[in-house]
Cyclin-L1-1
Amino acid sequence: MIYTAIDNFYLTDEQLKNSPSRKDGIDEATETTLRIYGCDLIQKSGILLKLPQVVATGQVLFHRFYCKKSFARFNVKKVAASCVWLASKLEESPMKARQVLIVFHRMECRMENSPIEHLEIGSQKYHDLKTDLSRTERHILKEMGFVCHVEHPHKFIFNYLAILETPPELRQEVWNLANDSLRTTLCVRFKSEVVACGVVYAAARRFQVPLPENPPWWKVFDADKSGIDEVCRVLAELYSLPKAKYIPVFKDGDSSTFSSQSRDSQSQPVLKEIPQTSPTANIKSASATVNTESGGSEDVLVKAPLDKLKDSKKNDDELKNMSVEGEAREEPLPKSNSDHRTDASRERNREREERERDREKEGRIKARDRDRSRDFDRVRDQEETERDKDRVRDWSHRSKDRGKYLGHSEKSRHPSSRDWDYHSSSYSSRGKDRHRHQSYT
């Protein structure tokens, strides 16, 4: 049983030799090639997604998962995609499932030298891939016991180099070796400190940089010489291998792969042969039974059931032919990928045309409303102008009448010259009479 803890997920050599893939008949070379192939997919996808910190965590999760599950039970491409998706969440750089699926679909098309087809978001293929991605992620979390803590050797490298006072040109080589070590099973066999010491020792040997041996420098970093030698041996063996290629060892029917070419090759229908019993054999067996039961003397009794069997056999054949013809008429032919694509494009064109029709209809309705509002405004303006003209006419008539009235009142209020003469003469005559009266008195 494999023990899993926060900082402990390490296997022995015997456990690796008896891995689930070996139990399913996969040899060591094939398992190593598939491990390297899956790590290559994770590294390339991390570069395309611009998430370099996710690559190391995804590769460690990939190795841990296949220490508990077989390559024959889980597709290496789907597991690699799920490891990238899960590692992006663990490294606090979450990516959408759509982005991960598009990147892996494009990589697989390039690896298979097939024409690059766009992965449509609303297609059935995308839905199946997304379902498989989330399902595989749940399998990984279940096998890990939801313990996904990962400790990389990269965080120890610079401290070790600073303590050993190595030249600066050694840092890049040590970093590259640490990255390459994640393609192997070193991350599930040794602690990160031992792997860091191993890559430092390998880089120092390559650049011929002396390291202190009295006392041994690796004891300061809690490592042993055997572990360091094993790390160097595994890295040397890794560099001697050819470029890893995909080997189809997945046993179950893979109905939703990333590329359509592999999906078509793997989803070929299997015809099953239905055993059919010959009617003559049934007739012979029936006649034999009748002969054994009734004897040879009863020929009349034997011929009657034989005739009935022949008639029933003819009726059955006619019914079978009719049913087969009906099924052949009713069963539709399976559509190919090109038919599905053309149907999808037709639906998109139909939807686009419907949208354009709706927009034109809305535009016509808006134009009609706009014209109506303009006509209404024009009529209202005309009515207002007519009202204003009527008001002006009324005001002019009223002003004329008022002028006549005012002129008449002014005449009545101010007497004429004739009236003034009359009054003045009357006043003068009254004054004369008054003067006369005073003189008489």
